[in-house]
Amino acid sequence: MTHRTRPLLAAVLLAAALTGCGGATTGATDPAAPPAVAPAAAPAAPATAAPLAASAPVRVRIPSAGVDASPVLRLGLAADGTVEVPPVSDGDKIGWYTKGVTPGETGPAVLIGHFDTARGPGVLRDVSHVRTGDEIGVTRADGSTALFRVRELEQVGKKAFPTAKVYGNTTRPELRVITCGGELTDGHRPDNIIVYADLVG
């Protein structure tokens, strides 16, 4: 199998903070109950699954968060060098950052979705229900499913976004799922919630 390496980190160094949500969210959710996760980490899953060949994601399932999203949007870089997020009109969909690897390949595959938008709750509105050990399934265009197990959950301010940790090269197939968090401030949420997962099947 050919090992593909892409310059993920170089492509996003200008994007010091990936927002994971776009557009004003005022009134979209109850600001008294902001999305949040308790920081948690588990040991990396044993390398029981071999890396997969490249194949674009077409469906994402996160049972603990009530997510079953299809089709998967394709995201790149915006004109200002920041990572694109799904448009507000597609708040119920998850996007895949195409300048990275496909889910199941060696490296960090990145998925991005809204917690909420001005139009209402987004696809990742229940991200706070996710726990370490939970599974994430990504159906791919070749008909295979890449199964990941959550290893870590992190909530960080957007100004302190861990770019190298999220996009830096890895020696094994990994997944990141990114959305917004924190209490609404001037119609926006100040934090990112990041789910880290390892390929297990």
TrEMBL record:
Endpoints of the signal sequence: 1-24
InterPro entries: Sortase, Sortase_dom-sf, Sortase_F
Keyword Transmembrane helix recorded: no
Domain of life per record: Bacteria
Keywords recorded for this protein, A-Z: Hydrolase, Signal
Protein name: Peptidase C60
UniProt source species: Streptomyces cirratus
